[in-house]
Write a structure and sequence with these properties.
about 375 residues; mainly beta; Immunoglobulin-like; 3 domains; five-stranded antiparallel beta sheet; about 5% helix; disordered N terminus
């Protein structure tokens, strides 16, 4: 018995040294059971933060501690990683290939190994495909294909969503990636973002044992101001609320319904003699392009490169319009969708991109 205890003590003292067998005590302790592992994703699929091991404690009152062993290959020697009193262990850094756990009593006698677990790289899911963003007010809505989840439904656990600032002038994502959040569905809203600040986005898929996939192809988008169900009246009937400015410099207001008699507004609603309603650009430098029927305000994607004019365009229910504005800091773009028309008024949804020169009003084309 003395020899067995001394030999067990030597194993405990030699942390991170090789031992090919576990000491077999005269009176074997019960071994831990149901050892499982879960990698902790870092954002780099090749370098997880670490590995979390969990096991079921044996029903043996003599057990006081557990010894955690690992090895780098299926034929290599076992290394003592740690001794712990809890039924779990977090191993920081790049994991080994295999892990096992033993029970130990107060005299350092050990049980046999628990079941072995192997960190299986084959459980890595494919990268999510088809990431598409939609610009919202102080937010970006993201959606993507279910290809990663459907590749192995029983292995899929959740998605991780990342973002970083985007440099519009050079068309590059910066290296300051952060985790926006996680989701189990193929959509996510990144909220609390400043309007007019472009950001890149990417998504990864995580398996049930913590393997993180490669990232989706990054895409970018820019939150912008918007509002819905805004009433603008006909100038010929109620001029005080017939004008609209996407940005009003005197008051620094974004999305202002004001008098159509002003000469510094972007457009006003006019009622012609036949009863039709028209959107008329007012201030010099503001022009409009008609997009025709669109399903929603968010259907207006990148502002068109051309096709703008200063003539009035008919207000049609369900139609979209993009206004190009010339301000002191350069071009800006605003979107409008007519949602309803009355005899003397129009109800509109609008969006405005405060980032100068940025044509994004809703969706970046994949």
């Amino acid at each position: 018995m003395r020899r067995s205890v001394l030999l067990a003590l030597a194993v405990i003292a030699a942390a991170c040294t090789t031992t090919n067998t576990v000491v077999a005590p005269v009176d074997p302790l019960l071994a831990p059971v149901n050892l499982t592992y879960e990698l902790v994703p870092s954002g780099d699929p090749t370098q997880p933060v670490g590995i979390l091991l969990r096991w079921d404690p044996p029903a043996d009152t003599r057990v006081t501690t557990y010894n955690v062993y690992s090895r780098g290959s299926t034929s290599g020697g076992w290394y003592l990683r740690a001794t712990t009193t809890s039924a779990s262990f977090y191993d920081l850094g790049t994991p080994d290939l295999q892990y096992a756990v033993t029970s130990a009593d107060a005299g350092y006698a050990e049980s046999a190994y628990s079941n072995l677990v192997t960190v299986n790289a084959a459980n890595q899911l494919p990268a999510p495909a088809g990431l598409v963003p939609v610009s919202l007010n102080t937010a970006i809505q993201l959606s993507w294909s279910a290809n990663a989840r459907l590749a192995a439904p029983t292995l899929f656990s959740y998605y991780r969503v990342y973002s970083t600032p985007y440099t519009l002038g050079t068309g590059t994502c910066t290296a300051a990636w952060v985790l926006e959040g996680t989701t189990v569905s193929e959509d996510f809203i990144a909220s609390g973002l400043p309007n007019g600040s472009p950001r890149c986005f990417a998504v990864s898929a995580v398996s049930t044992d913590g393997h993180e996939s490669d990232w989706s192809t990054p895409t970018y988008d820019t939150p912008r101001f918007d509002a819905r169900n805004i009433v603008v009246t006909a100038f010929q009937v109620t001029p005080a609320t017939s004008g609209f400015s996407f940005y009003d410099p005197p008051t620094q207001t974004i999305g202002l319904v004001t008098s159509g008699a002003r000469t510094d507004i972007d457009f006003r609603l006019d009622r012609h003699g036949d009863g039709s309603l028209w959107l008329l650009p007012i201030i010099s430098g503001t022009s409009v392009a008609s997009l025709g029927p669109i399903a929603d305000l968010t259907s207006i994607d990148i502002a068109p490169a051309g096709g703008y004019g200063t003539a009035a365009v008919p207000a049609v229910i369900g139609s979209g319009y993009v206004f190009q504005l010339v301000l002191s800091d350069g071009f800006h773009y605003g979107g409008v969708r007519v949602t309803a028309l009355g005899t003397n008024y129009a109800i509109i949804d609008w969006s405005y991109q405060s980032d100068p020169g940025n044509p994004e009003l809703s969706r970046v084309k994949p």
